[in-house]
Amino acid sequence: MMKVKIELLGLLHLKGVKNNSFVEVKDDSTISDLYNELNILKDHQKFVTPFINGSEVRKSTIIHDGDTVKIFLPTGGG
Q1: Cα separation of 50 and 39, whole Å?
Q2: Rounded distance between C-alpha atoms, residue 28 and residue 63, angstroms
Q3: Predicted model pTM
Q4: 7 and 20 in contact (C-beta within 8 Å)?
Q5: Nearest to residue 15, comparing CAs of 41, 38, 43?
Q6: CB atoms closer than 10 angstroms to residue 17
Q7: pLDDT tens column, 51-75
């Protein structure tokens, strides 16, 4: 198991997940695995943008122990 820091950006709120908290995930987990662990619905996953240690990444990117994962929900309006 490994620990990663979760930061929620934009108007994103996840039930049971505090911003700037640490979560444990299995070794060799991907962003997609993390989304599932955080109970982000598959239909909603396409709307959030993941970052690891400040760099935008794909959902297939592997997370490493000690990484900071930022999950950004873009908003728009006019």
Answers
A1: 15
A2: 6
A3: 0.90
A4: yes
A5: 38
A6: 16
A7: 999 999 999 999 999 999 999 988 8
